């Protein structure tokens, strides 16, 4: 669970000679200067003592790092190949100014020599193995865990002392730990029979055996090997690590992802100036400066996302005993459980204050040296012009020149080179002088040759370094050296310069082509540069804007406080971002999203400000459009519910405490679904919009007309003088709509139901007032529609009950709670069942039955009667199909059609679809239509009935004699059957009027060649009378009420024949 850095270096007793220790003490810190070619150019005294003559040697041959070639700045563990043998160290790579190579600082400071002794006496099961898994140290507790003597582990591989499964587990753990160089949680089986124990292994890069692995057993089933820890310490499962970490130098800590400390060793307490043991359980914000705590919190979030370690450099101000700053290199890594899941964060901190101070001193020394070299180079240049024939001074200039220099003959033979030439071309002096000038040039390129000594040539070409071409700037001058023409070639690698030029060109392209306006000022606010997008947005061109202050864009729409807050943010945070209104050159104000950043130098002083902005005028317009759409009805453009409630709330607030009135009229169009279904949805939408236009003309400008959706409107009557004025608005609306509305070449009569609620009597808040107006509207519908009703408290319970029934009805239709029951039709000649009428029945899940007389009118009011009728048709046909599949006797299934279904333009298509989907022949279906349905639209209804009859479907007039149809229309209808309503059958044969009506209908049916069915037959007398006068088929309680499908199925399967010889005076409710 702990990092792969640390500073623990473990050594066995006697493994280091006194000389080695003495050398290490004298050479704990070394500095190397490395050229851009990776060759060591200089080593301080400590470096030479450790490595010997190292100048001219490539760094990678004496220092091994991962990665192989670190990119500065970099710090990490490394292996130094000293004269005395390989030694682990801490290496820090820093770039030198002027692209002149690297500064490599090596830290070989040894840790405490008592670590192994502390681990031995800690009571912890601990083992140390080298990179080949050879045991270098085990504690007595670890040896006891396996029941093996401690001495048997010394310098032994796992396979020679442990069971095969244990050895294999340790080697796998070592590979995983060293591969990732972070803590690895795993298990070790003690034997084939015993349960494995939990263990954690951590990498140790700096030991006398090179990189090693330290393992600690955390838990066994019986805790036999648990260390002796005071239970009151509160350390719990972290106690073993606490004991181990307290022996380690440097800060070592374990925290959860929220920042609470789980473990902190003694060195950490000392570093943070805390009493021992006080940090556990505390939040980092209580222990660290706010800036450092925030930095670690951000790193925790990154680690949770990416699951990778990190390395930070942190400075604690005034933490030294002398009040100086202390700098630490902090390594952080995820702590994982046995399944690989992240549980927290491990942290190791190493103080590098001395290293930083040394680096700063070396940098200063290097700067001074470079300044001296530059001065000397200039002197040598002057001396070369005056004394170019002097070989001694030429040599000095040659060797110390900042550019690579070559001397060559006319034939291309290289005579000499300086060190920079070696570094630039990646070749030693010996290798270079064995080549011709053409050998260092890319194919197709050559060094230029001047015509005379007075005409030096400068050009760009491509040279080779390790076989790879790179761009170079070359200058060639002809010299006369000891009477022989010689060429002096100066060359410089310009890869970085070209890269910088490309980047500058790219930045220029981005600046010029950015869609956002860009403005750059100096520290005083004077404009230095603007891009074309700035001109496009503001109208100010670059020529007119440069030199001015950004106040030229000020719109005067913001107060002084706004700009004070802006500048406060720039001074404190170095940045500000937000929405601002500015002014174009033509005086037009516009909104923009502006981001300003302060550019500061190394001292923290502001040198420039950079502003990026884009015009958000279109965005603002879209926001306004979205707000309008969110507050208005798309079809009519009227305010919607949200805007209505907003205005209603404002009206109530304005009149609060004044007794001021406010009225709501909740309006619903009567029978709108019938219009929508018969004329189509497009016509329905036009009808809704037309009603809205009419209502708009009937209200005052200060009132609000809104549409809540569907066919519902609400009028807000603002500040009426008295309640009567609200009622007058309702009466005016009803009077207006008493006249038909023209729509699609039709005149439509509109009925409205209006509910009235008046504040404060009928509601205190907007929602309550709207709800009560809605309830009053429902009461108006119940009163017969096309009227208005004022809210009163006693309406509440009654309308609530009705609304609950409506909700249940909608639910019942969605979930199939309404099902068909079937009342058998009996042939009075045989007593057999020849047909059945499908009747809707509704039973709630709790067993409560709701009568059709209760829910059918509600379905009609809600416009659900069409869906109910469609459901009954398809369910009945599906049952008929089931009877056919079982080979039961053929019967005719009678299904009632509602008025809405009859008026539907696609009635025939829907019936055909139901027959086709169920596979029932048309002749097995009888459709019952009421007189009122036929007479509501005779022409269209007859056309549809003709098409249905042509298909072979039987058509019957239901409730015949209760309506107002004429014999003329009856004669021309494609009917097959007349049904005698039960209201006429009920009084047979005793009441003369009922007898006359029944006999008349039977005679008329015979004359029109129609079959007759009598419903509601409950007595033998009724049956005998009807049969004696020519009625062949009846239905009623005398034989059977409407029964579920399975009951009718059973009757047909058993071939039941009803008793048609019941004595005339008997009333029978006994059914088979």
TrEMBL record:
SUPFAM superfamilies: EAL domain-like, Nucleotide cyclase, PYP-like sensor domain (PAS domain). Residues 1-21 are annotated as: Disordered. Residues 660-793 form the GGDEF domain. Residues 310-364, 576-628 form the PAC domain. Pfam families: EAL (PF00563), GGDEF (PF00990), PAS_4 (PF08448), PAS_8 (PF13188), PAS_9 (PF13426). Residues 802-1056 form the EAL domain. CDD domains: EAL, GGDEF, PAS. Residues 390-433, 503-549 form the PAS domain. InterPro entries: Biofilm_reg_signaling, EAL_dom, EAL_sf, GGDEF_dom, Nucleotide_cyclase, PAC, PAS, PAS-assoc_C. PANTHER family: BIOFILM ARCHITECTURE MAINTENANCE PROTEIN MBAA, DIGUANYLATE CYCLASE DGCP. This is Sensory box/GGDEF domain/EAL domain protein. It comes from Nitratidesulfovibrio vulgaris (strain ATCC 29579 / DSM 644 / CCUG 34227 / NCIMB 8303 / VKM B-1760 / Hildenborough).
């Amino acid at each position: 669970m702990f990092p792969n850095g640390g500073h623990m270096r473990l050594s066995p007793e006697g493994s280091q000679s006194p000389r080695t220790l003495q050398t290490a003490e004298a050479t704990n810190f070394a500095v190397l200067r490395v050229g851009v070619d990776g060759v060591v150019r200089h080593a301080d005294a400590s470096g030479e003592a450790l490595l010997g003559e190292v100048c001219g040697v490539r760094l990678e041959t004496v220092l091994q790092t991962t990665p192989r070639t670190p990119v500065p700045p970099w710090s990490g563990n490394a292996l130094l190949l000293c004269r005395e043998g390989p030694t682990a160290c801490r290496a820090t790579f820093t770039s030198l100014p002027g692209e002149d190579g690297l500064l490599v600082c090596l830290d070989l400071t040894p840790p405490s020599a008592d670590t192994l002794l502390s681990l031995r006496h800690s009571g912890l099961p601990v083992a140390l193995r080298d990179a080949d898994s050879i045991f270098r140290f085990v504690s007595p507790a670890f040896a006891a865990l396996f029941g093996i003597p401690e001495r048997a582990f010394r310098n032994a591989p796992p396979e020679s002392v442990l069971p095969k499964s244990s050895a294999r587990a340790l080697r796998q753990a070592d590979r995983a730990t060293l591969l990732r160089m972070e803590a690895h949680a795993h298990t070790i089986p003690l034997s084939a029979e015993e349960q494995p124990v939990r263990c954690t292994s951590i990498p140790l890069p700096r030991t006398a055996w090179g990189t090693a692995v330290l393992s600690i057993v955390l838990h066994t089933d019986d805790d036999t090997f648990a260390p002796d820890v005071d239970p009151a310490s509160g350390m719990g499962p972290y106690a073993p690590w606490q004991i181990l970490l307290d022996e380690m130098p440097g800060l070592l800590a374990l925290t959860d992802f929220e920042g609470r400390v789980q473990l902190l060793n003694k060195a950490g307490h000392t570093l943070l100036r805390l009493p021992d043991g006080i940090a556990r359980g505390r939040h980092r914000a209580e222990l660290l400066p706010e800036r450092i705590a925030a930095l670690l919190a951000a790193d925790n979030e990154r680690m949770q996302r990416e699951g990778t370690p990190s390395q930070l450099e942190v400075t604690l101000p005034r933490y030294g005993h002398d009040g100086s700053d202390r700098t630490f290199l902090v390594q952080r890594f995820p702590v994982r459980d046995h399944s690989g899941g992240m549980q927290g964060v491990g942290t190791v901190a190493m103080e590098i204050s001395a290293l930083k101070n040394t680096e700063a001193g070396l940098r200063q020394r290097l700067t001074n040296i470079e300044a001296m070299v530059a001065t000397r180079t200039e002197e040598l240049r002057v001396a070369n012009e005056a004394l170019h024939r002097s070989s001694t001074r030429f040599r000095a200039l040659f060797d110390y020149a900042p550019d690579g220099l070559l001397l060559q003959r006319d034939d291309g033979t290289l005579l000499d080179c300086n060190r920079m030439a070696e570094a630039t071309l990646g070749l030693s002096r010996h290798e270079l002088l064995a080549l011709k000038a053409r050998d260092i040039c890319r194919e197709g390129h050559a060094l230029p040759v001047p015509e005379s000594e007075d005409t030096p040539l400068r050009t760009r070409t491509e040279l080779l370094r390790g076989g790879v071409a790179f761009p170079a700037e070359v200058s060639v001058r002809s010299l006369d050296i000891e009477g022989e023409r010689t060429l002096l070639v100066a060359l410089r690698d310009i890869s970085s310069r070209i890269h910088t030029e490309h980047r500058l060109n790219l930045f220029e392209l981005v600046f010029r082509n950015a869609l956002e306006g860009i403005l750059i000022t100096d520290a005083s606010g004077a404009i230095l540069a603007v891009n074309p997008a700035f001109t496009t947005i503001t109208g100010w061109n670059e020529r007119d804007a440069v030199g001015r202050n950004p106040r030229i864009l000020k719109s005067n729409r913001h107060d002084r406080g706004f700009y004070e807050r802006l500048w406060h943010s720039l001074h404190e945070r170095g940045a500000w971002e937000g929405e601002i209104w500015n002014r174009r050159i033509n005086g037009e104000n516009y909104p923009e999203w502006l981001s300003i950043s302060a550019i500061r130098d190394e001292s923290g002083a502001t040198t420039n400000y950079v502003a990026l902005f884009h015009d958000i005028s279109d965005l603002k317009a879209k926001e306004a459009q979205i707000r309008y759409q969110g507050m208005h009805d798309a079809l009519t453009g009227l305010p919607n519910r949200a805007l209505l409630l907003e205005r209603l709330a404002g009206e109530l607030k304005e009149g609060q405490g004044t007794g001021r009135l406010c009225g709501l009229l909740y309006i619903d169009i009567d029978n709108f679904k019938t219009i929508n279904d018969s004329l189509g949805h497009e016509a329905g939408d036009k009808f809704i919009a037309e009603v809205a236009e009419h209502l708009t003309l009937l209200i005052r400008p200060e009132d609000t007309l809104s549409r809540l959706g569907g066919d519902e409107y609400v009028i807000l009557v603002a500040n009426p003088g008295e309640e009567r004025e609200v009622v007058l608005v309702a009466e005016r609306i009803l009077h207006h709509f008493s006249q038909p509305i023209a729509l699609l070449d039709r005149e439509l009569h509109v009925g409205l139901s209006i509910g009235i609620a008046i504040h404060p009597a009928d509601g205190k808040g907007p929602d309550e007032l709207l709800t009560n107006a809605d309830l009053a509207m429902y009461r108006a519908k119940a009163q017969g529609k096309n009227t208005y009703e004022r809210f009163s408290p006693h309406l509440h319970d009654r309308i609530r009950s009705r609304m609950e029934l409506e909700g249940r009805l909608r639910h019942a239709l969605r979930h199939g709670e309404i099902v068909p029951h079937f009342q058998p039709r009996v042939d009075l000649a045989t007593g057999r069942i020849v047909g059945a009428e499908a009747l809707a029945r509704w039973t709630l899940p709790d067993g409560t039955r709701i009568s059709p007389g209760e829910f059918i009118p509600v379905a009609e009011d809600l416009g659900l009667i069409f869906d109910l009728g469609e459901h009954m048709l398809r369910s009945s046909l599906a049952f008929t199909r089931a009877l056919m599949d079982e080979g039961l006797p053929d019967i005719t299934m009678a299904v009632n059609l509602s008025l809405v279904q009859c008026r539907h333009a696609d009635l025939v298509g829907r019936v055909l679809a139901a027959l086709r989907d169920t596979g029932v022949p048309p002749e097995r279906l009888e459709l019952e239509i009421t007189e009122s349905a036929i007479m509501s639209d005779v022409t269209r209804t007859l056309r549809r009935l003709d098409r249905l009859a042509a298909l072979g479907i039987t058509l019957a007039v239901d409730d015949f004699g209760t309506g107002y149809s004429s014999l003329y229309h009856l004669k021309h209808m494609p009917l097959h059957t007349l049904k005698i309503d039960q209201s006429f059958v009920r009084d047979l044969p005793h009441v003369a009027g009922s007898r006359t009506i029944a006999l008349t209908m039977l005679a008329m049916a015979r004359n029109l060649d129609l079959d007759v069915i009598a419903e509601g037959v409950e007595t033998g007398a009724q049956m005998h009378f009807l049969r004696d006068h020519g009625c062949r088929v009846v239905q009623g309680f005398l034989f059977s009420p409407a029964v579920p499908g399975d009951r009718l199925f059973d009757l047909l399967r058993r071939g039941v024949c009803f008793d048609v010889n019941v004595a005339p005076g008997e009333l029978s409710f006994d059914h088979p």
